[in-house]
Write a structure and sequence with these properties.
Elements (H helix, E strand, L loop, with lengths): L8 H49 L3 H28 L4 H16 L6 H29 L1
Helix pairs in contact: 1-2, 1-3, 1-4, 2-4, 3-4
């Protein structure tokens, strides 16, 4: 099982370190994949809860579509800026903060009845989703 013990000690130790490093990196990949699933679920939840928001608040389709537009524009504008920042500085905490913002924004939609409050909540969620992706892409590249 331990293929590196049959060789000279220096080469064996290098192979052992490479094997353990590869084994440890797989945990990061699974963790990043789990975070990405949570981020993408938050992005899709808005479309799933729109019928409930329409029924609860008596919105027309244009008003409901405005909520999706606000979330997508907020994320689309912020993500390149955060990507530029992630390339310049080491900010791994932005992934956790992004997931927290995405989940909190979606959770807040169940408590807010004002349209502008809902816009703010889905905007926070969209920014959180956008905050996760640049740093996650950088880290998954390092883990690969």
């Amino acid at each position: 099982m331990h293929f590196w013990k049959k060789e000279k000690s220096g080469i064996a130790e290098d192979k052992r370190k490479a094997f353990l490093e590869m084994k440890n990196r797989s945990h990061y990949k699974y963790l990043l994949a789990s975070g990405h699933v949570c981020s993408d679920i938050n992005q899709g939840v808005l479309s799933a809860i729109l019928p409930f928001l329409i029924a609860a608040h008596h919105y027309d389709y244009a008003t409901a579509a405005t909520l999706v537009l606000v979330a997508n524009i907020a994320g689309s504008v912020v993500q390149p800026l955060l990507g530029h920042l992630a390339d310049r500085k080491n900010i791994p905490w932005s992934m956790s903060l992004g997931l927290l913002m995405a989940g909190s924004g979606m959770a807040a939609t169940s408590y807010i009845s004002n349209f502008w409050g809902l816009c703010l909540a889905v905007m926070i969620s969209g920014i959180g989703i956008a905050m996760f992706h640049p740093t996650a892409a950088l880290l998954v590249n390092k883990a690969a």
